[in-house]
Amino acid sequence: MNYLAHLYLARPTADSCFGNLLGDFRRGVDLDHYSEAVRAGVANHILVDKFTDSHSAVRQARGVVSARRRRFAGIMLDVLFDHFLIKHWSLYSDESFTVFSQRTYECLAQRVGVMPERMQVMVRSMLTHRWLDTYRHLQGIEKALERTASRIRFQHSFHGSIDEVKENYAVFEETFLTFFPQLLAAVRRHAVEE
Q: Tens of pLDDT along 115-158?
């Protein structure tokens, strides 16, 4: 899952939001320097990623992506799932997306100073450009995918992947609507952050 989904699945606290994003930046980081709540957030992040990567519907959706981009299908779906989460927000939250995103930005801003340097750069950009809000539209998804493609250091065919998103939009949306409630149930069942 991508940033929005991890933050949605976090508890509404600064440490949990930090920990649930730190999962993507934990390589080389001594987690013992952080609170139990932050470490629980990291554990929740790992649970979410493992559940997502092993889910049959997600694996099947990855297979729809063309052979030349299939290597990056997981990234493509992770980012797109944030779009679908916003599109179907009222199915999963009684709180408006606007209120949620503002609270989440405020939580992250409280912890920027203790984040690993690479994460600080990303989160400062997220806060400045309000990344979560941009996932509402496919134009924002395209920018996120292109930003990711530009960071890949080897020759690849990931640029222009928004074309595959548009071509398979209905299939990917159906995948999300099947898969996401099961992910929510798994997070509740495991209660890593309780």
A: 999 999 999 999 999 999 999 999 999 998 888 777 777 777 77
What 3-state class would DSSP assign to 68?
coil
Please report, as a single letter, which amino acid is at residue 176. Answer: F
Question: Using the 8-state DSSP alphabet, how is residue 183 labeled?
Answer: H
The backbone torsions φ and ψ at residue 117, rounded to the nearest 5 degrees and listed phi first, read: -55, -45
Number of domains into which the chain is organized:
1
pTM score of the predicted model: 0.94
d(CA 164, CA 108): 32
- Give the domain range for residue 137: 3-190
Tokens 């998804």: give the residue: 141
CA distances from residue 104 to 46, 100, 183 in whole angstroms, order as listed: 20, 6, 20
Identity (one letter) of the amino acid at 60? Q
Which two three-digit tokens encode residue 71?
């290597």
